[in-house]
Write a structure and sequence with these properties.
Order of helices and strands: HHEHHEHHEHEEHE
Largest sheet: 4 strands, parallel
Number of strands: 6
Structural class: alpha/beta
Strand order of the largest sheet: 1-6-5-2
Shape: globular
Number of domains: 2
Length: 231
């Protein structure tokens, strides 16, 4: 393409030409340890350690692919603010591979299963004024395409314009997100829902979405699926 000749792709890691992420830098992506997203204790398969919580969490687990190091941070920035489609394709494929090799989810990747892959919605004002797209939806679409399943439905709408959560404590994030989501698609009993997002921080967004979904349909399982964790 003409644009490729004028603006050739460069590796975000080492700045070599020809690819947005060269084979050497791909090998340097650091996998995230399998831990509980809430307690940060070791947990096979990234399941929530309900046994360590004083109150049961509506979130059942959250798979996180990579540590939030400078390389993955650059990739996510290119996806989040510059709409680089090749980045969403690459990261979505890696997320899909994680589901295919996960002990629990690999059993659900069959025809007629009740697995639903969705994403964290963005408020319409922020989406249209600041970026015009939702990076979590782009990732979810790439995951579904890789797995050859239906395009991701928007299970929830964000009905409350929340403040930026940078610098907020866990309790402040929880209060900021309270009542922020509304389920807009019926959820069948026995469904397993996977919420795709780019970065997990405190887990407050995932927990609030899971709480909202289980209020509507208590007989469902809700997991997160994120590229990286920052915090």
């Amino acid at each position: 393409m003409i644009l490729d000749a004028v603006f050739p792709e460069q590796c975000v890691g080492c700045r070599s030409g020809g690819s947005y992420l060269c084979s050497s830098c791909r090998k340097n992506l650091k996998p995230h340890p399998e831990i509980c997203p809430i307690t940060h204790k070791l947990s096979p398969g990234y399941a929530v350690r309900q046994d360590l919580l004083t109150q049961t969490s509506p979130l059942d687990g959250c798979i996180v692919l990579f540590r939030f190091d400078p390389l993955i941070k650059k990739l996510i920035r290119n996806l989040k603010y510059y709409h680089h489609a090749h980045v969403s394709s690459f990261l979505g494929q890696r997320l899909a591979l994680e589901l295919q090799t996960h002990e629990f989810f690999s059993q659900l990747l069959v025809p007629d299963s009740k697995l639903i892959i969705s994403y964290v919605p963005s408020h319409r004002i922020r989406r249209h004024i600041t970026k015009g797209y939702n990076q979590s939806e782009l990732l979810a679409r790439s995951v579904c395409k890789t797995l050859s399943i239906s395009s991701p439905p928007q299970l929830c709408k964000k009905v409350k314009h929340t403040h930026s959560q940078v610098g907020m404590s866990r309790e402040q994030r929880k209060k900021n997100l309270s009542g922020a989501f509304h389920v807009v698609v019926p959820i069948a009993p026995g469904s397993t829902i996977v919420i795709v997002d780019d970065v997990l921080t405190s887990g407050a967004t995932m927990i609030e979405m899971a709480k909202t979904m289980k209020t509507i349909q208590p007989d469902c399982t809700v997991w997160g699926l994120c590229v990286a964790r920052n915090g």
